[in-house]
């Protein structure tokens, strides 16, 4: 469960908050990592400080216009940045795609799962989504485990859907519907 304070959410261990320009250096350090790049759909590599700054600058406008909600995943006490989580908002169909990344040094600590649960609650309770979906490369089984732990159901596989690094990648598609009252 999470507690929401406008654009900041807290969980047991985490604070999901808007990114600040002062986070750009850490975003650059985390994202300029080949291991992170190879398991993400849209992250460029190499990743520059300018990429981090321009990406952070898009968040406010996207949030205001209810297009995309991007949150820094940080330690609730120390505010140390661990990664990012976001969800798109297709208002016409009341659904969105969940996406996340954690700095490699924070993999395996359950932060993505904890943050994803909070974002699901935000999507269903505050933004009235009917469905949230997510996709991952079949080779990134850790991301699939996060989706399963938050109650998402495997809906199918998009075979050889993405061409990356001179090979085709399968995308595994998961989804979850809003709880019915």
Describe the model.
The structure is a single chain. The chain is an alpha+beta fold. The protein has a single domain (3-136), classed as Aminopeptidase (3-Layer(aba) Sandwich). Helix content is 29%, strand content 35%. It is built from five helices and nine strands. Strands 1-2-3-4-5-6-7-9-8 form a nine-stranded mixed beta sheet, with helices on both faces. Helix 1 crosses helix 3 (49-64).
List the main descriptive attributes of the protein structure presented here:
about 180 residues, Aminopeptidase, nine-stranded mixed β-sheet, 9 strands, RimJ/RimL family protein N-acetyltransferase, GNAT_dom, N-acetyltransferase, Acyl_CoA_acyltransferase
CATH domain topology:
Aminopeptidase
Side by side, the strands of the main sheet go: 1-2-3-4-5-6-7-9-8
Assigned CATH superfamily:
Gcn5-related N-acetyltransferase (GNAT)
State the end-to-end distance: 17 Å
Radius of gyration: 16 Å
- At CATH level 2, the architecture is 3-Layer(aba) Sandwich
Give the class-level CATH name.
Alpha Beta
**Mind summarizing the main beta sheet?**
9 strands, mixed
**How many beta-strand elements?**
9
What general form does the structure show?
Answer: globular
**What's the average pLDDT?**
95
Count of helix runs: 5
């Amino acid at each position: 469960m999470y507690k929401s304070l406008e654009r900041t959410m807290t969980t047991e261990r985490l604070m999901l908050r808007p990114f600040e320009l002062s986070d750009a250096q850490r975003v650059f350090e985390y994202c300029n990592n080949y291991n992170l790049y190879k398991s993400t759909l849209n992250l460029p590599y190499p990743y520059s400080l300018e990429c981090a700054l321009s990406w952070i600058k898009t968040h406010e406008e996207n949030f205001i216009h209810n297009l995309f909600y991007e949150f820094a995943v940080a330690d609730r006490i120390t505010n140390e940045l661990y990664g990012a989580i976001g969800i798109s908002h297709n208002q016409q169909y009341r659904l969105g795609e969940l996406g996340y990344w954690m700095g490699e040094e924070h993999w395996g600590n359950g932060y993505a799962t904890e943050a994803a649960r909070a974002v699901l609650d935000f999507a269903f309770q505050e933004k009235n989504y009917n469905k949230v979906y997510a996709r991952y490369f079949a080779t990134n089984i850790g991301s699939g485990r996060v989706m399963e732990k938050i109650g998402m159901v495997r809906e199918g596989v998009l075979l050889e859907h993405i061409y990356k690094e001179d090979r085709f990648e399968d995308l595994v598609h998961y989804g979850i519907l809003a709880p019915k009252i």
